[in-house]
Amino acid sequence: PLAPGPASEGFVWASICCVFLLFAISPTAGSAAAAPHAVADARRIRVTNTDPRTLQLTLEGFPMQGDLDLQPKIVLALLLPDGRWRELSIDRLDLRAPSLEELNRWQTHIERTRS
Questions:
Q1: What DSSP string runs through the chain?
Q2: What pLDDT, in 10s, does the model give residues 44-70?
Q3: Mean of pLDDT values over 19-41
Q4: d(Cα 16, Cα 27) in Å, to the nearest integer?
Q5: pLDDT tens digits for 100-114?
Q6: Model confidence over 2-15: pLDDT tens digits?
Q7: Which of 52, 60, 59, 68 is closest to 102 using CA atoms?
Q8: Which of 14, 30, 38, 48 is found 20 to 30 A from 93 (Cα to Cα)?
Q9: Pairing between β-strand 85-90 and β-strand 92-96 as defined by DSSP bridges
Q10: How far is Cα 86 from Cα 38, in angstroms, rounded to an integer?
Q11: Residue 32 pLDDT level (bands cut at 50, 70, 90)
């Protein structure tokens, strides 16, 4: 399957596994481009908007117990080829699902990671 736009414009594939939100260039298993190049902790993310018409979720940071920042950002760990990582903080993340059923699954999974 093709992404809805080029990676240069921020379109990548997302998957969720346990409490990890993973990002890759390709969804094709076995492809080097399918290896995650970024990861975020889904426990620190909340769904702030769901649009069933556009199949889009809007995510923002969620404070953990003891956080002093009342407006936390989403922290992405960008995985570098040499084994290091670089943190990137963003205010919001928009995800687009392929179907309404998948949109609802994503919303439910993200909301359950904090319980």
A1: ---SS-GGGT--EEEEETTEEEEES---TT-GGGS-SEEEEGGGEEEEEEETTTTEEEEEE-PPTT---SSPPEEEEEEPTTS-EEEEEESEEEEE-SSHHHHHHHHHHHHHTT-
A2: 999 999 999 999 999 999 887 777 777
A3: 88
A4: 12
A5: 999 999 999 999 987
A6: 666 777 777 788 99
A7: 52
A8: 30
A9: unpaired
A10: 9
A11: confident
Task: Please give the structure tokens belonging to residue 69.
Answer: 């920042």
Determine the residue type at 30: G
Residue with tokens 């920042």: 69
| pLDDT at 1 > cutoff 70 | no
Encoded amino acid at 67, one letter: D
The span from the CA of 94 to the CA of 58, in Å, is 5
- Burial (Cβ within 10 Å: 0-12, 13-18, ≥19) of residue 45: buried
Question: ∠70-87-35 over CA atoms, to 5°?
Answer: 125
Residue whose C-alpha is closest to residue 45's, from 66, 84, 25, 16: 16
